[in-house]
């Protein structure tokens, strides 16, 4: 058991180290890091202070170590636009993204998993085919196009939902639906195949023969055993949600970090880009670690295998 | 035999759509009377012909009176060719990395697989945005970026298959006959994993289309004067209330292409990957 956790933690630390190294290499190969992070028109004494602070007069290896130190303590430099510390800007924008992400995720799970179970129970029937067709549509539909279509219908034609901004529940509906669609489609597909595999197992027939009612067989016997692939897909889809948020927030002018990232990239506000990428990457790596640990909780065999 | 079965309706539909898009991309601009840059300032934001617009502009015009059909053909050309190049670069590079990892084993394998894990742990759009921000956008960098998408999947796939193939008698026999690694991998192992790679290509291609159009939609991908479907869609955002067609046509095209490619990919996977079939059926 301890070994299982240790391996997971070691891999996580390794990936984090890769992420920071990637950022360092990009920063150092793209030009002068001072110009990159402070801007071309920075004051000479500011530049001098920065060079000392980051040890840019030191050998590259020392610089690398001090860079890791800076990043680990969240010192990402200041934004070119308003000279505020990058960390403050990110923290200000983060709650909106978390809110949107959680809403979308909950929606996707509430729609996708029951739809997948239903499709598996009605295998080959019209309901199964309809759900699977919808699922394919769900993940082939580009999220920016879905967002535009929703705005066209609900904001411009019927005028029942606001097309942009945040603040009320009504503002949340369209961005959350747009962001959830892809994940719901993927979840429905994987839940269906995971359930199909489980439903054919002998213990399901045994439960039926024992006279366990159908709803109990599905929810208490089949679903827990289908949980592992479903959790895997949820873990893999975290990245999709983050990637989707970058686009969806821009479509709906949602004031989160995805929109901030797009603005920072287009204005080449490099300190903000670097800070955001590191924050998002660390969050994702930690989320993946939690998914991995969840496997161990869900399936004792995985813990055993790692021993 | 299941493989003799005729393809179903969705697959035929998907095939027809893809064939039509490639055809339009290849020869479409021969039939459009306008050039991409032609502006008709008196015919700005004209609705499609079937909605009372001018017959000269069947799908309407944009904010400076450029013909939508002409721009869609150009955007389609760009989006398809960038996605095609990206897919090929990623497939070749990833497969070579996988072969190298399986061939050298040891430290090389560990290092390469660590890179694979790193790329798989982050959403690719994040890596793409970082590189675009720091190195600036150019057509060359953008195509390379598209090629960097998905190589890790090919690498994992190729490595896994090579490792299991090398344990099989035919690989041992070829080696015993004195074939070098190039001959072994190129002529004997590659044909054996070709079907798995082709399935992966059909899965990666629509993802790259989505990546390119997303970035171009955000204004961070294909830059004017070049045209991409995502870029037209993004431009149309400011005119949603007056000229919905600017956004809807390119969006519909992207959707149809990714949908068709997914349907074909699924069908191909069921056919070419017998292992998967026995597992799910």
UniProtKB/TrEMBL annotation, chain A:
<feature type="transmembrane region" description="Helical">
    <location>
        <begin position="226"/>
        <end position="252"/>
    </location>
</feature>
<dbReference type="GO" id="GO:0071916">
    <property type="term" value="F:dipeptide transmembrane transporter activity"/>
</dbReference>
<keyword id="KW-0813">Transport</keyword>
<feature type="domain" description="ABC transmembrane type-1">
    <location>
        <begin position="94"/>
        <end position="295"/>
    </location>
</feature>
<feature type="transmembrane region" description="Helical">
    <location>
        <begin position="172"/>
        <end position="191"/>
    </location>
</feature>
<keyword id="KW-0472">Membrane</keyword>
<dbReference type="InterPro" id="IPR000515">
    <property type="entry name" value="MetI-like"/>
</dbReference>
<keyword id="KW-1003">Cell membrane</keyword>
<dbReference type="Pfam" id="PF19300">
    <property type="entry name" value="BPD_transp_1_N"/>
</dbReference>
<feature type="transmembrane region" description="Helical">
    <location>
        <begin position="133"/>
        <end position="160"/>
    </location>
</feature>
<feature type="transmembrane region" description="Helical">
    <location>
        <begin position="100"/>
        <end position="121"/>
    </location>
</feature>
<dbReference type="Pfam" id="PF00528">
    <property type="entry name" value="BPD_transp_1"/>
</dbReference>
<keyword id="KW-0812">Transmembrane</keyword>
<keyword id="KW-1133">Transmembrane helix</keyword>
<dbReference type="GO" id="GO:0005886">
    <property type="term" value="C:plasma membrane"/>
</dbReference>
<protein>
    <submittedName>
        <fullName>ABC transporter permease</fullName>
    </submittedName>
</protein>
<comment type="similarity">
    <text>Belongs to the binding-protein-dependent transport system permease family.</text>
</comment>
<dbReference type="InterPro" id="IPR035906">
    <property type="entry name" value="MetI-like_sf"/>
</dbReference>
<feature type="transmembrane region" description="Helical">
    <location>
        <begin position="272"/>
        <end position="298"/>
    </location>
</feature>
<dbReference type="InterPro" id="IPR045621">
    <property type="entry name" value="BPD_transp_1_N"/>
</dbReference>
